[in-house]
Amino acid sequence: MSTNLRTANVTAMDPVWDAVVSGARRVVASEPSLTNLLYSNVLNHDGFEDALAHRLAERLDHPDVSADLIRQAFREAQESRPEIGLEARADLAATLERDPALHKAVDCFLYFKGFHAIQTHRFAHALWLMGRKDFALYLQSRSSAVFQVDINPAARIGKGIMLDHATGFVVGETATIGDNVSILQGVTLGGTGKSEEDRHPKIGNGVLIGAHAVVLGNIRVGDCARIGAGSVVVKEVPPRVTVAGVPARIIGEAGTPHPASVMDQLAVVQDLTG
């Protein structure tokens, strides 16, 4: 099935967008003071992609580059890479599934800076691939200032990403992140050395990375691995294990087939102390 056909099917039957709209209507009914916010960012829009571009542009607006110019760039990025909308839906659904503090899809759509930072990166990455690298770098700078998240626009990120709390998340130029990954605040996916080569981590599918963990160099973190909070990872991590410590070492199995979905970090502490 072509990407355009998949996108058309999502547009015709779009449970994520329906959940955002339904939540927006409930907020308007219960908190009239937010009516303008909800209509401007959700209810006045025909679909998910249009509303997403509007919300992000409003948050990234600055006298240097207006929200209107950002929206135009986002439209061009969406035309070049229409799967952005599908990936963003997967991110929102993943956050709703994994974050017990999130009760309505519209709250993530409007307020969660981790979600906003990842979506800004998706548009910046598309612009980077289109050759609009200067605009992509500008978006990286604005996202860093507004959301406290610094992702190089060349980095490649999969779908179903939950960036929890988000503050201080840093991703280098040649890093890659697989699908269905959960990452907490303060995480760094950093490089080693200063040569222009492949120098950043490769994070597999289903990985859970705890708060303030640091992963350095062109190393692979295997699928469904778990990295403990505050760890410094400088060696390859096999699939389906837990690593923790400074430097990180294997302390056991991952404890679950899907660490990113379960979000169990306490077991890492118990493994280290027990």
TrEMBL record:
Residues 16-120 form the Serine acetyltransferase N-terminal domain. InterPro entries: Hexapep (IPR001451), Hexapep_transf_CS (IPR018357), LbH_SAT (IPR045304), Ser_AcTrfase_N (IPR010493), Ser_AcTrfase_N_sf (IPR042122), Ser_O-AcTrfase (IPR005881), Serine_acetyltransferase (IPR053376), Trimer_LpxA-like_sf (IPR011004). This is Serine acetyltransferase. The lineage of its organism: Bacteria, Pseudomonadati, Pseudomonadota, Alphaproteobacteria, Hyphomicrobiales. Pfam families: Hexapep, SATase_N. Its EC number is 2.3.1.30. The keyword Acyltransferase applies. GO terms for biological process: cysteine biosynthetic process from serine. The keyword Ribonucleoprotein does not apply. GO terms for cellular component: cytoplasm. GO terms for molecular function: serine O-acetyltransferase activity. Keywords: Acyltransferase, Amino-acid biosynthesis, Repeat, Transferase. Belongs to the transferase hexapeptide repeat family. Signal peptide: none annotated. SMART domains: SATase_N (SM00971). Pathway: Amino-acid biosynthesis; L-cysteine biosynthesis; L-cysteine from L-serine: step 1/2. It catalyses: L-serine + acetyl-CoA = O-acetyl-L-serine + CoA.
